[in-house]
Fold:
Amino acid sequence: MPAASLLPDTLDALVAASRLVLPESVQLLDGPPPTSTTPPDVVMLGFNGEQGTEAVTVSRRRADRGGRSDREAYDISCLSSSWRGDNNQKMVRDLAFSFIDLIAGELARDRTLGLDLVSNSYLSIAGVAPVMDSKGAMCTVHFVIHVDAYTP
Structure:
């Protein structure tokens, strides 16, 4: 029986690929954090920072494959964040971007995420949110992973 979408498999593959390259000190979350408290270094895949809001957009159109499958495109919102208890904004910004660089490198190495029906994946930066308060410097970078795939 055909699946409605390759998205669940794609998200699983993205999490697995990210686990391979991120340092153990970075908490990798599949979706939003379970509490409002997050560790100093965290990457959240499939989360845009707002609980309960759409973090993945999907478009679908007919593929030229004899009507056997459709073409899908996903934009998967993700966050990379680093926090330290001092005032060094450059350090936390560099750390947050370094985690994204590791994921981008893995996507460049295997644009299919190991899935036969994924034809391309890459990421782009959507925004940067620096914070400086009494707890110190924090930087959260919103990035989007773009995926082109065929439905099974």
Remarks:
- The radius of gyration is 17 Å.
- The helical segments are 7-21, 89-109.
- The first helix runs from residue 7 to 21.
- The chain has a mean pLDDT of 92.
